[in-house]
Write a structure and sequence with these properties.
about 35 residues, about 85% helix, flat
């Protein structure tokens, strides 16, 4: 279960570097993932 979390975190970091405008939707996606788990 830790590996997918790391992958999602890495993807979020990439989103921050490439698309600063989409940081908020990225965090919303993380919240949804946490609720799913």
């Amino acid at each position: 279960m830790y590996i997918p979390i790391i992958v999602i975190f890495a993807a979020l970091v990439i989103e921050k570097l490439k698309f600063n405008r989409y940081i908020v939707p990225g965090f919303n996606f993380i919240v949804v993932v946490r609720k799913s788990l």
